[in-house]
Amino acid sequence: MGKNILLHVTGSISCYKACALTSLLTKNGYNVRVIASEDALKFVGAASFEGLSHNKLETSMFGNDDPIPHIHLAQNWADLIISYPCSANTINRLAAGLADDLFGAVCLANNFQKPLLIAPAMNTNMFRHPSVQEGLKKLEGWGAKILPCGEGELACGTTGVGRLLEPAEALEYIEKAIS
Ligand SMILES: Cc1cc2nc3c(=O)[nH]c(=O)nc-3n(C[C@H](O)[C@H](O)[C@H](O)COP(=O)(O)O)c2cc1C
User: Fold this and answer.
1) Is 156 a catalytic residue?
2) Can you list the domains of the chain with their CATH numbers?
3) What is the whole-number distance in angstroms between the Cα of residue 1 and the centre of ligand 1?
4) Residues 52-106 pLDDT 10s
């Protein structure tokens, strides 16, 4: 039986890479369920994640077939949780311990029992902002694994740190963390 990967996707221009990671994971025998933030769905549609994961997309804590999705996903289903791409907004929200959306509640309910990987992706200034750097340090101190960002040309036209890790590299980190 393949292991269960809970993939969280946020509103980043690099969201399309989450489709590639979903595809890679399923091809490598993992079961994948995707949680998308409201803004992630402005970049990539639900049909892509559902078609590639073969599972219904999760977007909300309410109105699901499962009446307590955050607890069941975090404590019963997931073997590993990854936020890829993880926006500046979500890093700050997670570092504040907010649980007013499905992924925030999943992270609190998981409480670092299963590996939590964070793959930041954003403009260089956003990445270097003290709130993001302190948020990442805080999450790491609590038990999250912060994946490195690539450096190079960014979608916004600038060059620097903040590129999302490539899907194949993310897969390597997942395999290492889950083994
Ligand atoms: C075209 C475009 C690209 C964006 N790319 C990023 C990004 O790569 N990283 C990021 O942190 N925010 C990015 N943003 C801003 C986020 O979408 C915004 O902060 C949003 O509220 C994030 O919400 P979420 O974390 O709930 O998904 C982008 C916005 C736009 C309009």
Assistant:
1) yes
2) 4-178 (3.40.50.1950)
3) 35
4) 999 999 999 998 889 999 999 999 999 999 999 999 999 999 999 999 999 999 9
